[in-house]
Amino acid sequence: MRSWIELACVIGALALAQPAHAQDFPNRAIKFVVPFPAGGPADTISRILTEKMASLIGQSMVIENRAGAGGLTGIASVAKAEPDGYTIAIAPSSGLAMNINLRENMPFHPLKDLALITQIVSVPEILVVNEKVPVASLAELVSLAKSQPGKLVFASTGLGGMPHLAMELLKLTAQIDLVHVPYTGAAPAVNDLLGGHVQMMFADVPVLLGSIQSGKLRALAIGSKTRIASLPSLATTAELGMPQVEADNWYGLVAPIATPPPIVAKIHAAATQALQSDEVKDKLAAQGALAVGNASAEFSSYVKSEIERWGGVIAATGIKIK
C-alpha cells in the first residue's frame, strides 16, 4: 500500500512541476533561429517581430542565423532542441508544407516534430515578365506561351520553393509548357530576369516592387486573394479568371513538439500581441508582408491544408528533390 501512496505522491509532484516551470518562463534569453542568412526577408521579418516580443515577454530574444538545405537545417535543429521554450524559429512555407512532399528523407516532420504556434506573415507572390516580353496581361502571356511551347523560360528562387511551385500551378491551370531555371536565391534570379536571360517569374512583393515601379519589370497578376496597397491596380489571378492559381508565401513560428502547452501559450500570446500592434504591422507592411498572428489550431489546420494542396501540384508535376 505504501508503494502506491509514494507513487501517487511522485505523480502529483510531477504534475505540479510543469505549471510552476511554465509560470517562471522565461527567466533567460530565448534563442530565435532564422534558417536563412542574415539580411534576407525571413531575417528582416524576424528582427521586427523579436524586438517587439522581447519587450512584451520581458527577456531578450537572440537571433541565430542557421542557413542550409533551403531552410531545413535550421528548422531541424529546433525540432531536436530541448522542448523548454528557449529555442524557437521562424519557418517558411517550403519547410512546413512543400518539402514533406518533395523529399524522400526529411530531417523532421512538420506535423509530428514541431509545435505550430502561429502564422507570422503572409507575403503575396507577383507574376512579372521582363519589359521586352511582348505581353501586357496574363491572358496575353498564356497565349504567347501556347504559340511557343517549350520556348519561354521562367526563373525561380530554387527548386520546390513557392516561386517555383506557383509557376508550376500556373502551367497546370493554363496548360502551357514553360522551361524552368532554378537559381540559388531571389537576387540572382531577378538579376537574370532584368537582363533578359529569362522571361518571367513569380516572387515575393518586396523582391520585385522596386523593379516594377521603375518599369524594368511588368507585373501581370498577384497570386493573393485580394489586391495589395502598394500595387492597387494589379489584379489578382482570381479576378483574371484563374482562381486556382493562388500563391502566397508565408512564415510561421514553431517550437519543438514536446514544449509544454503553458509555455507555448506564453510564446503565442507575446507573438500575437506583437503582430497586432500598429508598430509591427507598419514595419512588416513596408517589407511587403501582411501580419497574421492567428490561433495555434488555426495555423495547424492551415499547414495541413497547404501540405495537401501543394502535394497535389507536386504529384501532378513529378517534381522531386533528392
Can you describe this structure?
This protein is α/β, with parallel strands linked by helices. It has two domains: 28-122 and 249-317, Bordetella uptake gene, domain 1 (D-Maltodextrin-Binding Protein, domain 2, 3-Layer(aba) Sandwich); 124-222, D-Maltodextrin-Binding Protein, domain 2 (3-Layer(aba) Sandwich), CATH 3.40.190.10. It contains eleven helices and ten strands. It has helices at residues 2-24, 41-57, 72-79, 93-102, 138-147, 162-174, 186-194, 205-213, 261-276, 278-286, 296-317, and strands spanning 30-34, 61-65, 87-92, 114-130, 153-156, 179-182, 200-204, 217-222, 248-256, 290-291. Strands 1, 2, 3, 4, 7, 8, 9 and 10 form an eight-stranded mixed beta sheet that branches. A two-stranded parallel ribbon has the order 5-6. β5 (153-156), α6 and β6 form a beta-alpha-beta unit. α2 packs across α9 (261-276) and α4 crosses α11. The longest helix has 23 residues, at 2-24. The N and C termini lie far apart (58 Å). Mean pLDDT is 91; it is low at 1-20.
Summary keywords:
single chain, 322 residues, alpha/beta, D-Maltodextrin-Binding Protein, domain 2, 8-stranded mixed sheet, two-stranded parallel ribbon, 11 helices, globular, disordered N terminus
Mean pLDDT: 91
Which radius of gyration do the C-alpha atoms yield? 22 Å
What name is given to the CATH topology of the largest domain?
Answer: D-Maltodextrin-Binding Protein, domain 2
Q: Output the helix-strand order.
A: HEHEHEHEHEHEHEHEEHHEH
What would the principal axes of the Cα set say about the shape?
globular
How much of the sequence lies in strands comes to 15-25%
Number of strands: 10
Instruction: Tell me which CATH architecture of the largest domain applies here.
Output: 3-Layer(aba) Sandwich
Number of domains: 2
Q: What separation lies between the terminal Cα atoms?
A: 58 Å
Largest sheet: 8 strands, mixed
The number of helical elements comes to 11
User: What's the CATH superfamily of the largest domain, by name?
Assistant: Bordetella uptake gene, domain 1
| Poorly predicted tracts of residues | 1-20
Helical amount = 40-55%
Structural class: alpha/beta
CATH class of the largest domain: Alpha Beta
